[in-house]
Amino acid sequence: MEKTAGQQLIESRRTIRMFTEGELDTAELYELFTSAHQAPFHNKVEPWNVYLFNGEGKDVLLSALEPAFQDGPESKREKVAGRIRNAAACVYVTTKAFETEKDKKDALLATATFIQNFHLLCSERDIGLVWRTGGIFEDTRLQEMIGAEGETFVGLLQLGRF
Predict the structure, then answer these.
(1) Cα distances (angstroms) measured from residue 17 to each of 40, 141, 158
(2) What is the pTM of this model?
(3) pLDDT tens sequence across 115-144
(4) Which of 2, 92, 138, 149 measures 20 to 30 Å from 81, CA to CA?
(5) How far is 156 from 138, CA to CA, in rounded Å?
């Protein structure tokens, strides 16, 4: 049986960690976010927030990470900063605050689905993506500096052509 376009897209999707130089068009990224937001969620409010750091905007992200960098070894700073600089754009994704454990879990799962949708859409446009979680990106000082205080960090997406 012949595979559908959706099956081919899912099976061909790969995590890309190294990118070629060049910028990504912000309008194109917003178009992909708009389509990705069709992720299922049982509430009337989409639970995710997206903070885009495109091109030179990555310097804003690096500046916001500076307090967290001071708490760790220089090698960690170099590694993380190098990865951010290597990407054409970075997307900081969070879930909004919810009161009940069920709502928090639903929000997290819906946000992960949003990210997967976005990843597939990027793959279709030959935009590479790596989804990073945890660690330094959960620093509350970073969240305060970018306006994400009180939200739950789900992932830092690093994007670029490959």
Answers:
(1) 28, 26, 8
(2) 0.93
(3) 999 999 999 999 999 999 988 999 999 999
(4) 149
(5) 10
